[in-house]
Amino acid sequence: MIVTTEQSVPSLALVGGRLATTGEKATVTIQDGRIAEIAGPGSAQAAEQTIDIKGCLISAGFVDLCCNLREPGNGQKGNIASESRAAAHGGFTTLCASPDTSPVNDSGAVTNLILDVAATRSSVRILPIGAITRGLEGELLSDMAGLAGAGCVAMGNGSRPVRNARVLRRCMAYAQTFGLTVMFSPENQALAADGYAHDGLVASRLGLLGIPEVAETAAIMEMLLLAEETGVRLHLSQLSCARSVEMLVEARRRGISVTADVAMHQLLFTDDALSGFDSRFHVRPPLRSESDRKALLAGVREGVIDAITSQHQPHDSAAKQAPLAATEPGLSTIETTLSMGLLLVERGELSLQQLLRALTEGPASVLGRRAVIEPDAAADLCVFDPARTWAPSASTLCSAGIHHPFPSRSLPGVVQLTLCNGETAWASEPERSPIR
C-alpha cells in the first residue's frame, strides 16, 4: 500500500549513486514520503536508514500515459496487482490506466473500483483515464464531469476510434467546458479497415492486409481542426508515422494546444519484425518503415513528441497463438521499456537525458504534474544500474503477459530500487534492503 505524507515514515538516505540527469554524485535523503535533501557525498544529514546504491543512477520515477491493467476484467490477462508490480520492476511509479476495461471505465462507480483496488494492491500510483463515450462505442457522451470528480485525470476512447466527427466535436467541446484533457489514438477506421500491418513492402511480400499511413494522418488532421475550433487540450497517443510528427509541429505553430506520445517499440522496431509472421509484433498502430522510425526518434530528441509510453498490453498465450491476422494486437513491454530505451542510447539514437525526459518530465507535464528530483518533491524514484544486464524470462518478469519482444536476450539496465511516495515498490536484491 502506498505511504501517504500523513503517515510516519523513517528517514532514508540513498548513498553512493549519481543523479541520472547530471551525472553528479549525490546523497538523496527522504523523509515522510518526500525528498528532504540532495547533498554531495559525505555532507548529507543523518538518516535512520541507509541504502548503498554505488554504481547506480537515480532518476525520477517513470510516468506511463498508456497502460492496460486488465482490471476490472476476468483476470486471465493480468490484474492491477500483477501489472503494477511489473511496472515497479520497470521503474514506473505512475500509471495512467486505459479505459479499455470490462466493464468499461465510463462511470464514477468503475473509477472508484479501480482506485479502491489500487489502494490495497498496487505499490505504484494509478491514475484512471475515463471513457469519453459510453462503453467506448463512440456514440453517446459519457458523464465526463462525474468521471473527473471520481478521480479520472483525462478522458479518452482507448484503442477504439470515434467514427462520427460530429460526436468527436461534441466530446471535445464538452471536455473543454470542464478543462479536461482528451487523449486519442488517431485512426480512421474506414481507411484502416481490416488491416493489421503497415501498408508497405513487407505486407505486400507476405500477403498481409495493410493499414496505410493516411489512416493515422487523416484522423490527426480531423482532430487538430476540431481541437483548434473547440480549444480543448488534445493529446495524440501512440504516433507511428513521420507525417504525423510534421503535422504536430505545424499544429503547434498555429497555437493549437496539443501534446503527443509514442510507444517505445515504435522507436526500436519496424515492420521487418513481422517477416517471420511473428504474432508478438502484431501491434496497433502497426510497426512502420525505417524512415518513420527515424522521424519518431527525431521527434523525441527535439521534444516535439512529449512522452514515450510502454503501451503495455498483457495477453494470455492463447491471444497470440493463432495465424497472424487472428491474433490480438499488443506487446507486454512495461518491464523492458527502460532497457529498450537504453539500447537506443547505446546506438547513439537518443541521449540518456532525452530518454529520461520522455519517461518522466514529458509525460508528467501532459497530466499537469511534475516528475523531478528536488527538495520537497514526492519521493518517486527509480534507481537503476546501466552497466548491468538481465534477460527477460518467465522467472524474471512479473507481468501476466509473456509476449515480450526480447525472449531470453540480454538487455542493459537493471532496476535495483523503485520508490513511490518514499515507500519501496520494487527492490531487486535482498542486499539492497535498508541497512541500519
Q: What can you tell me about this protein's structure?
A:
There is one protein chain. The chain has 436 residues and is an alpha/beta fold. The chain has 13 helices and 18 strands. The strands form 3 sheets. Strands 1, 2, 3, 4, 5, 16, 17 and 18 form an 8-stranded mixed β-sheet that branches. Strands 6-7-8-9-10-13-14-15 form an 8-stranded parallel β-sheet. β17 (411-420) and β18 form a beta hairpin. It is globular and about 60 Å long.
Say what the CATH topology of the largest domain is. TIM Barrel
How would you describe the shape?
globular
Return the average pLDDT rounded to an integer: 94
Assigned CATH superfamily of the largest domain: Metal-dependent hydrolases
| Total of DSSP H or I helical runs spanning 4+ residues | 13
